[in-house]
UniProtKB/TrEMBL annotation:
Protein name in UniProt: tRNA threonylcarbamoyladenosine biosynthesis protein TsaE
UniProt-listed SUPFAM superfamilies: P-loop containing nucleoside triphosphate hydrolases (SSF52540)
Main localization of the protein described in the UniProt heading: cytoplasm
A biological-process GO annotation: tRNA threonylcarbamoyladenosine modification
Cellular compartment(s): Cytoplasm
UniProt cross-references to Pfam families, sorted A to Z: TsaE
Keyword Repeat: no
Protein family: Belongs to the TsaE family.
Key words, A-Z: ATP-binding, Cytoplasm, Magnesium, Metal-binding, Nucleotide-binding, tRNA processing
GO molecular function terms noted in the UniProt entry: ATP binding; metal ion binding
Keyword Secreted: no
An annotated GO cellular component: cytoplasm
Length: 142
């Protein structure tokens, strides 16, 4: 599925729709350059899960857990992971294979431990189409 968004609100709304449809034990990999709108998308995704608190990037903590939605939400940012073994230390398996949903920013850095049925979301900019234009490709949905 490919979606074009023209405003941050549209990117948020797409994230929200995917969050509303998310199922337990789903893992979403969110890829895109710095500043492309991953946080806006994630905030919408969290909203779709019913998360009420503020959602921001867990860049320095690797993972943030939110328990106030319809299921646990694990938001990973693995950009600063030095070695994939660091994921063992934070108990990623409980998140990926438990009753919640995981969203992993920069998932390509930990490909070897991702489930086979991962859902990938790629956000791309095209400044020729406008500052807020985004092309969002989602693969792996049923």
């Amino acid at each position: 599925m490919v979606t074009e968004t023209w405003t941050p609100e549209e990117t948020y709304a797409l994230g929200r729709r995917l969050g509303e449809a998310a199922k337990p034990s789903s893992v979403y990999c969110l890829n895109g350059d710095l500043g492309v709108g991953k946080t806006v998308f994630t905030q919408g995704f969290a909203d779709g899960l019913g998360v009420e608190g503020p959602v921001d990037s867990p860049t320095f903590t690797i993972v943030k857990q939110y328990d106030d939605g319809r299921m646990p939400f694990y938001h990973f940012d693995v950009y600063r992971i030095g070695d994939v073994s660091e994921m063992d230390e934070i108990g990623y398996e409980d998140c990926f294979y438990g009753d919640g949903v995981s969203l992993v920013e920069w998932g390509g850095l930990i490909e070897e431990i991702l489930p086979e049925d991962v859902i990938t979301v790629k956000i791309e900019k095209d400044l020729e189409k406008g500052f807020d234009y985004r092309r969002i490709t989602v693969e792996g949905l049923e």
